[in-house]
Design a protein that fits this description.
The structure holds two protein chains of two kinds.
Chain A lengths: L2 H9 L1 H5 L5 H12 L2 H16 L5 H5 L9 H50 L6 E4 L8 E9 L2 E9 L6 E8 L4 E8 L8 E5 L6 E8 L2 E6 L16
Antiparallel strand pairs in A: 1-2, 2-3, 3-6, 4-5, 4-7, 7-8
Chain B lengths: L6 H23 L2 H17 L11 H20 L16 H18 L2 H12 L4 H8 L3 H21 L5
Helix pairs in contact in B: 1-2, 1-3, 1-4, 2-3, 4-7, 5-7, 6-7
Classes of the chains: A alpha+beta, B mainly alpha.
Chain lengths: 236, 168
């Protein structure tokens, strides 16, 4: 077999795959294919395509390709934009519900603690909300204090200081003795309260202080400003 | 394009694939209005499921066609008014004819994409079953040229099909 022969045979493979060759030519090519792995491999590929051809409708092939109307793209974009904004709204609502759920759960835990713990401690002082008045502009510091058998639970809300600021909280009694309530770091974007505790009994506390950013802010713990229950205290 | 979650990604995907998707939708639904609806629903579903698209698994085109296929099935289901055997036993439409329709459309689309000379020869000799000699005379070329155009036409068709994701 010469190279030229092979090339000629090869060009007949399409007609062979489609079954278009006259019998004697077909037989001769079949003999060549028998001894030519290259043509065998190519024939397999061509036969794969040839087998698909009957699926096609020649009338449709000759029709020009259809195009979607020009405004379809804009319509789809508008629909997706509408869905996106609806979804963003739904996410906000979900977050809001979660937030409320969390608050309710905390209130429920607080209520349970109040019921279980208070009789043991024998204290009946209600929870108090304290707002720090002498703070720089733009800074908010609030605390909620709740009596417990172990001492006082303090929820500290801080806003308007630099992110990462270390805050140390303490309670002070009438004698000027300081009881630490621990420390926390304020982080931007974290709209939550730090939960702390101090060994000083709330009924004995006269002042609450917070040391932050090199300054100390103190607010009186005054039974006159106490809020009964404490469940309605919301930093927002 | 890692996922199809941004609205901009959808716009790009639409620019690249809407023509083919629409072409197949028209082919399988037989109605331009329904086809528009199907394409719109396809892109909406693609956007909603955009995080699940993984280019490592398959091309965006293949993924969009898979969604369109489901949309077309759903539309067929919604349109069909079939008699019901029992209260909850609707007869499921067979998926097979749709797969076949997709393949048929791909072959037709591939035929449209190959060169005019090759398409002409395949149409005349294969689809119209005309003798090579007759087609050769009509086109004013030797019969050998018709034979080689059949060969190169099939090869081009295979390439076009592979470009459309066909994989035997």
């Amino acid at each position: 077999m010469t190279t030229d022969d092979h090339r000629d045979w090869r060009l007949s493979l399409g007609a062979y795959a489609l079954g278009d060759l006259p019998p004697e030519e077909r037989a001769a090519l079949a003999a060549h294919i028998e001894g030519c792995p290259e043509c065998r491999a190519e024939l397999r590929e061509l036969e794969g395509v040839a087998a698909l051809l009957p699926l096609a409708d020649p009338a449709r092939i000759e029709q020009p390709a259809v195009r979607p109307p020009a405004e379809l793209g804009a319509r789809i974009e508008a629909q997706i934009a509408a869905e996106a904004s609806r979804e963003r709204g739904a996410k906000r609502r979900r977050r809001l519900r979660l937030g409320l759920g969390g608050a309710v759960a905390v209130a429920a835990v607080a209520a349970v603690l109040a019921i279980v713990v208070l009789p043991v401690g024998g204290e009946s002082s209600p929870a108090q909300q304290v707002k720090f008045a002498s703070v720089p502009n733009g800074v908010t510091i609030k605390a909620t204090l709740e009596p417990h058998a172990f001492g006082t639970e303090i929820k500290m809300y801080v806003d308007g200081v630099s992110s990462g600021t270390l805050c140390r909280v303490f309670l002070r009694d009438a004698a000027g003795k300081t009881f630490s309530a621990g420390s926390f770091r304020y982080r931007w974007g974290e709209d939550s309260e730090a939960e702390l505790s101090s060994a000083l009994d709330l009924s004995q506390a006269t002042e609450i202080g917070i040391h932050a950013g090199g300054r100390t802010f103190v607010a009186p713990v005054n039974p006159a400003t106490a809020l009964v229950g404490g469940a309605e205290i919301d930093p927002a | 394009m890692p996922a199809l979650t941004r609205e901009r990604d959808v716009r790009e995907a639409y620019a690249a694939h809407s023509g083919e998707l629409y072409g197949f939708a028209v082919r399988s639904l037989g109605d331009a209005g329904l086809a528009e609806e199907a394409v719109q629903e396809t892109f909406l579903r693609a956007w909603k499921a955009g995080e699940r698209y993984d280019p490592e698994i398959g091309s965006l085109r293949t993924w969009l066609f898979a969604i369109l296929r489901n949309v077309v099935i759903d539309m067929g289901r919604a349109r069909a008014s079939r008699p019901r055997v029992g209260p909850e036993t609707g007869i499921e439409p067979s998926v097979e004819p749709l797969e076949q329709a997709l393949l048929a459309w791909q072959v037709e689309e591939a035929m449209r994409r190959i060169g005019e000379d090759h398409r002409r020869v395949l149409l005349e000799t294969h689809f119209k079953a005309r003798p090579y000699a007759e087609v050769a005379e009509e086109m004013g070329v030797p019969e050998g040229t018709i034979k080689s155009r059949v060969y190169y036409g099939l090869k081009a068709l295979r390439v076009a099909l592979e470009e459309m994701g066909y994989d035997d």
